[in-house]
Design a protein that fits this description.
Porin; two-stranded antiparallel sheet; ten-stranded antiparallel beta sheet; 1 helix; mainly beta
Length: 223
């Protein structure tokens, strides 16, 4: 039900944006691969996570070549971390895990609402194709956070995952003109985390920084 509400809000926003002469907007789907990058030698990144997301994108024209690019995305992310030393405690919503042994692998399955803001530059159309690049900031709002602490345990670990985190993103791609103002969108986006996404403490009871990286390929339609 929550996903349906988000999808409806996205479609409504696309309609409002596209109705304005100075604005353009569209909708897309995106396969994604994500992984963690911890800065503690006692924690290692294991497998990444392959998933799918979707979202809307909009441009507010500044000049013929530059625009503000705004969006609203539903992002599936995560991956696996291997903790080389024992963990004193992990607090899930329904269970408290105490004294987890060393070499424990925890698989995280995270969902975020992303509100990206970027500056976008584009070329004039060459034939039917226009090329673009963009750079900006991505605030990430936690939507769901689950983890397999035991095998297939699927615990709710919102107590151990920060509600808000930040990343920067770099993207680029093409639009292909169809009829009127309608265009096909093909885009690649890389996000690199700027802030820690979790709150779990290591065996020495010191915080460490664990950032989230995501590569996303988008295909959609803009108007």
């Amino acid at each position: 039900m929550k996903k349906m509400s988000i999808s409806f809000a996205m479609l409504l926003l696309v309609g409002v944006i596209s109705a304005q002469e100075k604005f353009s907007g569209g909708i897309y789907v995106s396969p994604e691969i994500s992984w963690f990058k911890p800065d503690n030698k006692q924690v290692k990144s294991e497998k990444g996570r392959l998933s799918f997301g979707f979202g809307i994108t909009s441009d507010i024209a500044l000049t013929n070549a530059f625009s503000f690019n705004l969006g609203l995305s539903f992002l599936n992310a995560g991956g696996s971390l291997k903790y080389l030393d024992s963990l004193p405690k992990i607090q899930a919503v329904d269970t408290t895990y105490l004294k987890l042994p060393s070499n424990r692998i925890i698989k995280y399955k995270l969902q975020y609402i992303e509100l990206p803001i970027s500056i976008k530059g584009k070329t004039k159309e060459i034939g039917y194709i226009s090329y673009f690049l963009k750079f900006g900031i991505s605030p990430l709002l936690r939507y769901k956070s689950r983890a397999d602490i035991e095998v297939d345990s699927n615990d709710d670990v919102k107590n151990e995952v920060r509600a808000v985190s930040f990343a920067y993103h770099i993207g680029g791609g093409i639009t292909y003109s169809l009829k009127g103002s309608t265009k096909l969108l093909f885009e690649g986006v890389f996000r690199n985390g700027l802030s820690d996404i979790e709150k779990i403490k290591n065996y020495k009871n010191k915080d460490y920084k664990n950032i989230l990286n995501v590569i996303e390929i988008r295909a959609g339609v803009v108007f």
